[in-house]
Amino acid sequence: MESYDEQRGGTRWAAGDLNADAADAADPAELAELADPADPPRPAVPAEPPVPAEPPGPAAVEASADASRSGIAALSLPGQVVAGVALAAIGFLACYHLAMVFLHVAPANTVTKEHGEAVNDWVMPEFEQNWKLFAPNPLQQNIAVQVRAEVNRGGARGTTPWIDLSAEDGAAIRGNPFPSHVHQNELRRAWDFYVNWHGEGNEPNGLRGQLSERYIRRIVLMRLEEHDLGGKIERIQVRSATTGVPAPPWSDEKIDTRPYHRVLPWWTVTAADLAGGVSGGSTEEGAR
Fold first, then answer.
1. pTM exceeds 0.70
2. Helix (H) and strand (E) counts for the chain?
């Protein structure tokens, strides 16, 4: 019996070894089909729980907050104060400017009667507003201011041809993306000032009439400094040439485009006319 058991046992061990080798070489799916249904299922091994991430530190939180801020909020505290003051000043200046322009174009009222001088000082001449463009009869004329001078050339007096100062301003403005305010408005406003305060016979209407005459005389002499007239300027004469703007080709309107001249009397150049470094006149007093 012992020999049989040993032989049987040896046989069993040999079979066990074969089964182990077959299990190693068999496909897992085939092993699942060969599994005994009576065998209880093995319990699943639970997965290890995830390790919780460490919370960000204060430096990381502050860096994230800085990255999410933009505009003024991204500046430091002193920078925010400076930016706030600058924005407040710009807003106040814009509102103040709009209020001044509104009072300038508005009809006469209590505020303009009391503070009209302050309003005009702010608006004139850079921000002047008028309604000529939108008037029922807008301007349809070109007005050129011209001058000629009587020059003393070594004892011999001569008169220059008419010099078109408005044409010189137009040439300086044309093609210039940033034209000078002087070229655009100085001569034009000086002539309007003179016409508004003088009658048809060129007689001044009050003190502003006399002021407008001195103003345009100074401007004309300053412009003549740019011309080499070959001698000393003793007298000047100013005139305006007004021509109508021709109608467009598609219009049947008939417009007289012949120039109309308004000629002022001769003015003798005085010392008062030579302000601003002008040196082309005599010191002879009086005017005619």
1. no
2. 9, 6
